[in-house]
Amino acid sequence: MTITELETIEIQLLLEGVYRYSGFDFRNYASNSLRRRIWNIVRSQGLTSISGLQEKVLHDSACLERFLHDLCVNVSGMFRDPSFFLTFRDQVIPLLRTYPFIRIWHAGCATGEEVYSLAILLQEAGLYPRCRIYATDINEQTLRQAKAGIFPLALMQASTQQYLQGGGQWSFSEYYTAAYDNAIFCASLKKNIVFAQHNLATDSCFNEFNVILCRNVLIYFNPLLQARVHHLLYESLCKFGILGLGRQESLKLTLHEKDYKDLASHEKLYQRVS
C-alpha cells in the first residue's frame, strides 16, 4: 500500500467518524482542497498524522469545534465581485419590484459580508422593507459573527470602492458606526435578516424563495454533492425565481440546466422557467 492510498483511507475514516459523531458531512467535498485543509489542521494541532487528528477530534469537543470551523470555507467580502451586484441592480431588481413580498435565501453566507451587501442594495432600491433574507451556513461560529454585524474598520474602508463599483448610490459609511477599530452595521440593516444553520450536504429545503444566492460554494463540492445541491436549490426556488452562482460555477451539464434561462450568463444569474 502506498502512502497516498493510506492517506486516502485515513481521510475517509476521519470524515466518516465526524459524520457519525456530529452529523456534519464533509464526505463529498472536493478532495484536493479538503486534503489541504485537513493537513493544515493536523499541523496546527501539533500532530503528525490524520489518524492522530481523528482520535483527538472524536474525544475532545473543543478540538471538534475548531476542526469544523477550520474545515468550512469562510471566504467572503463586502460587494465581492462588484460587477455581480451592479448586474443584480440592473437585471434582477426590476423583476423583484413586481412581488409584494420577497423571500431571499443566501446559502453559504460565511461571515455575512455579502448578506449585508445585498441588504444595502435592496435598501437603496427601496425594496428592503418587503424583503426577508434567510442567511444560512453550516458553521455556527461564523453565523454568530455574521449576526453580530461587526467587522474590522479597515475592511469597510477597503470595501468603499467595491461598493461604488457595484452601483452604490449613497455614502457607504452611512451604513455602519465606527467604534475603535470596528465597524458596526446599523440595526436597520439587520432587522429583515434571519441567520440560521443549514447544511447543504444533508438538510432539505425549508421555504420557497424568489431569489437564491449560492455563490462560490459549489466549487468546494465533488460532482455527486454538486448534483444534490443543484436539486435542492431548484426545489427551493419558485417559478421565475432568480438563482445566482459564483463565477467558476455553472448550470451546464446539470440535470436542471434546461429548467433555467440565462438572465446574465457572464455573472451567472439565471431565471427558473420550468
From TrEMBL:
Q: Which InterPro entries match?
A: Bact_Chemotaxis_MeTrfase (IPR050903), CheR_C (IPR022642), CheR_MeTrfase (IPR000780), CheR_N (IPR022641), SAM-dependent_MTases_sf (IPR029063)
Q: Name one GO molecular function term.
A: S-adenosylmethionine-dependent methyltransferase activity
Q: Which residues form the signal peptide?
A: none
Q: Which intervals hold domain CheR-type methyltransferase? A: 1-251
> What biological process terms from GO does the record include?
methylation
Q: Which UniProt keywords apply?
A: Methyltransferase, Transferase
User: What SUPFAM superfamilies does the annotation carry?
Assistant: Chemotaxis receptor methyltransferase CheR, N-terminal domain, S-adenosyl-L-methionine-dependent methyltransferases
- The answer to whether UniProt assigns keyword Signal to this entry is no
Q: Does the keyword Methyltransferase apply?
A: yes
Q: What is this protein called?
A: MCP methyltransferase, CheR-type
Q: State the species of origin.
A: uncultured Leptolyngbya sp
